[in-house]
Amino acid sequence: MQIRFTELERSIEGISRRMLTLTLRKLERDGLLIRTVHPVVPPMVEYTLTETAQEERPHPLLTATPRVRR
């Protein structure tokens, strides 16, 4: 299941674009997200939970929207 950056941004109240970007980068670095950039204009970025993220106790950001929940 994939979710677009803009969907996450709209669904999480009170988070800045910068903080969301930093958090997603950290989750990707930690092996919990896979980031897919589609070569279109404007750029489209989607995030998918890794198997590790689905098996472990999820980070609050990963359960922020119904589409991302297990």
Give the topology, please.
Layout: E1 2-4, H1 5-11, H2 17-29, E2 33-38, E3 44-49, H3 51-55
Antiparallel strand pairs: 1-3, 2-3
How would you describe this protein?
The protein has helices at residues 5-11, 17-29, 51-55; strands spanning 2-4, 33-38, 44-49. It has a 3-stranded antiparallel sheet. It has a single domain, classed as Arc Repressor Mutant, subunit A (Orthogonal Bundle), CATH 1.10.10. The chain has 70 residues and is α+β, with helices and mostly antiparallel strands. The chain is globular. The longest helix has 13 residues, at 17-29.
Radius of gyration: 12 Å
Spell the H/E element sequence.
EHHEEH
**What would CATH call the homologous superfamily?**
Winged helix-like DNA-binding domain superfamily/Winged helix DNA-binding domain
Which outline best applies?
Answer: globular
Number of DSSP helical runs:
3
CATH class: Mainly Alpha
Please identify, by name, the CATH architecture. Orthogonal Bundle
Q: What's a concise summary of this model?
A:
The protein is built from three helices and three strands; from the N terminus they run βααββα. With 70 residues, the protein is of the alpha+beta class.
